[in-house]
Specification:
This protein is mainly β and about 325 residues long. The chain is built from one helix and 31 strands.
Amino acid sequence: MLSTSTIRVSTTGGIAECTALALPGDVILVDQPYIRIPHGSISLSAPGVKYDIRSTIDFGGNGDNGLVVSAPGVELHGIKGVGAIIACTDASGILLDPSAEDCLIEGVTLSDCNVKNNSGAGAIFAMSGGPGALIRGLRVWNCQVYSVNGHSLNIGGVLGGEFKDCLFESTFGLSAEGMSVIGSDLHFLRCTVNKAATTGILVWGAKDYPLHNITFEKCTIKNSSQAVLPPPLGTNQKGNNSAMQICVNDGCVCGVKIVDCTAYDDQLTAAGVPSPTQDHFLDINGTTGTLVQCVFDGSNRAWGNVNPQLYTSELPAAQMIDCQL
């Protein structure tokens, strides 16, 4: 076993060299106050290695993703609010590929990510390799994401995941949900989304992907749908997005539970007049898919400018089976 490696460089070389030498169970400590990465990504490709990041790592505008996790059992730890900041102004701050099984991201702050959102990426982007190559066992705990051009968190195909005590603040641009979710056996606990340009939390029932057993518990969605509509609709008008949306497309979404969650909109104009953005708490829509065993119970609540009708559904009854709304 290697002893703990201390990284004290301002390029990817030190981290890359330690990653190449590290064995499962080793800890790589990154403790320089500020590290500027002039080009390329940092690859976290050593299985079972813990990266202890106590630095601001600035990828600037180098045209690439930030940290790329491509090995099983990688742990990425930071100190929330003190160092452990990933700034990536061109693409995803943290990208996980299908090899990143049983990985943990904890206590990391990401800011100013420009994820080129026409590709549907996110500040934290779990990118599956397709229906048969899902990422398994992902945990994201105590993380904060600020100011993202695109999704804050994009779960693009995960089987088994826990996401708790995270804050996703201020998305803008196209495809700019606070959280976009495709996957199964996922639990979101005490997560907060604030000022998403579009929907706060989107559950996307994509064709050919298994999508079942997704629970949102004690989550908060506030002031979403911040999009400014183009002419001729004018400027500074609210978007038409809800706090949460379940979109069923050409498949089956089964076992979505939304319990003890809150949606609110407390924005005012300069004159003190309510200025609502998000519409309903929950919107259910889709094309030819089916929604099975969806639970949206009386423990959920909404206040402020949110429509008192908590949910809307565009699906006919035949496409909704054993749902509790």
